């Protein structure tokens, strides 16, 4: 998922920089957006499931192998692919409904869904409502699960009497927590911040953070 997520934008960016080209075809833009959303949603779902896995490992260690059995892991994997395909195709269907564009310049280094869908010169109120609903379901719900998991993890770890035991417990989820903060922090900063006040340079830096650095 990480390799696919990064590969949807960075190779094209490198080619554009080397050849001094900043143009992409309409079909190419839709394909890039579809692949970007597919692997981005997979990343989002998998990060949430990894938080749940760490919650079970730390809060219910004796039942970890029973709860996180291979069958459940396969179901989780299929769920992440299904969510990615669903959201990706939804954005594609919405983009294909556009009959005209008010401006063909995208203030980003890739076909960012939020920028692309704002280019329509037709009424986009219904589209905006639908996207906000899906954004709430596939954005805030995973975020809430992750926050709740780490709340329970921290509560459990703080009850461990020894400092070494606390460190060992925290070390198992340190890398995951840092990626979660970077991924969600820059994503929410980009997409929620753009509705209030958007700066192209700040948006591009935030986009680089969650597409490359994570």
UniProtKB/TrEMBL annotation:
What molecular function terms (GO) are annotated for this protein? G protein-coupled receptor activity; olfactory receptor activity
Where found, per UniProt? Cell membrane
Q: How does it sit in the membrane?
A: Multi-pass membrane protein
What keywords is this UniProt entry annotated with?
Answer: Cell membrane, G-protein coupled receptor, Membrane, Receptor, Transducer, Transmembrane, Transmembrane helix
Its domain of life reads: Eukaryota
The signal sequence is none
**Taking every annotated instance into account, which residue ranges of this chain make up the domain G-protein coupled receptors family 1 profile?**
1-214
Which SUPFAM superfamilies does its entry note? Family A G protein-coupled receptor-like
Matching entries from Pfam families are given as: 7tm_1 (PF00001)
Q: Does the keyword Protease apply?
A: no
Please classify the protein's predominant subcellular localization into one broad category. membrane
Q: Where are the transmembrane segments?
A: 23-52, 72-94, 125-148, 169-192
- Any one cellular-component term (Gene Ontology): plasma membrane
Main role?
Answer: Possible taste receptor.
Matching PANTHER family: OLFACTORY RECEPTOR
This one is known as Olfactory receptor family 7
Which species does the entry assign this protein to? Fukomys damarensis
User: What is the gene name?
Assistant: OR7
């Amino acid at each position: 998922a990480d390799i696919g997520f990064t590969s949807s934008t960075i190779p094209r960016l490198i080619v554009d920089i080397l050849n001094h080209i900043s143009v992409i075809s309409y079909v190419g833009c839709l394909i890039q957006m579809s692949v970007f959303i597919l692997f981005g949603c997979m990343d989002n779902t998998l990060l949430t499931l990894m938080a749940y896995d760490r919650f079970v490992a730390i809060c219910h260690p004796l039942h970890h192998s029973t709860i996180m059995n291979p069958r459940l892991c396969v179901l989780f994997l299929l769920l992440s692919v299904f969510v990615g395909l669903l959201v990706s195709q939804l954005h594609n269907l919405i983009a294909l409904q556009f009959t005209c564009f008010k401006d063909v310049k995208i203030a980003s280094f890739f076909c960012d869904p939020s920028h692309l869908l704002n280019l329509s010169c037709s009424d986009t109120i219904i589209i905006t409502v639908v996207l906000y609903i899906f954004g709430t379901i596939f954005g805030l719900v995973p975020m809430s699960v992750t926050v709740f998991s780490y709340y329970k993890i921290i509560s459990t770890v703080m009850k461990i009497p020894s400092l070494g035991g606390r460190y060992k417990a925290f070390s198992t989820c340190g890398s995951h927590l840092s990626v979660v903060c970077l991924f969600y922090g820059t994503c929410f900063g980009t997409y929620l911040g753009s509705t209030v006040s958007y700066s192209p340079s700040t948006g591009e830096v935030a986009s680089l953070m969650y597409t490359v650095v994570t």
